[in-house]
Amino acid sequence: MFNLTDRHIVLGVTGSIAAYKAVDLASKLTQAGALVDVVMTPEAARFVAPITFKGVTGRDVFSDMWDSSTGPAEPHIHLARTADVMVIAPATATVIARLALGLAEEMVSLTGLATRAPIVLCPAMDSQMYTHAAVQAHLETLKSRGVQVIGPEEGRLASGQVGLGRFSEVEKIMGGIR
């Protein structure tokens, strides 16, 4: 079992209703001794406020790629260089596509493209989106580049439907990170 004490984990949070579950993940990683830096897309910040992540990690949250008022001048580069692992949870279809295509339009994709650390993606979206050929092709591209994918699971989705696309349980994600 991989020890998380003093390991630097960059947690990328994207605009999915499952973003609230990333708070629990950030909290449990911190409790396990990891240093957790959270980067968020603007859409993620509409679901969960950055201050929530700061509260559970005790560290600054990076959500605006144009804000240089805290930390290093280029936080995505600093975080990318110091990460032991980057976890993107939840990972939306948009961010999966950005990473597969090399598009850096917000803090999560900027950091993901800049890091040489292992990347763990935890997709969460409606099953119609998850099973779409484009999403599946982007995931295959990322897997071929060494990205680890955890989930999604079968279950009740935010739409009220039941299908493949549910965010994996935090314990399963923790196991994958370890």
Proportion of residues in helical segments: 40-55%
Task: Please mark out the parts with pLDDT under 50 across 5 or more consecutive residues, or reply none.
Answer: none
N-to-C order of helices and strands: EHEHHEHEHHEHHEEEH
Protein structure class = alpha/beta
Q: DSSP strand (E) fraction?
A: 15-25%
| Broad shape | globular
* Terminal Cα span: 6 Å
* Average pLDDT figure: 93
Number of strands: 8
Main sheet summary: 6 strands, parallel
The largest beta-sheet arranges its strands as 3-2-1-4-5-6
Tally of helical segments: 9
| CA radius of gyration | 15 Å
Question: How does this structure look, described?
Answer:
With 178 residues, this protein is α/β, with parallel strands linked by helices. Helix content is 42%, strand content 21%. It is built from nine helices and eight strands. The longest helix is centred in the first third of the chain and has 13 residues, at 19-31. The mean pLDDT is 93.
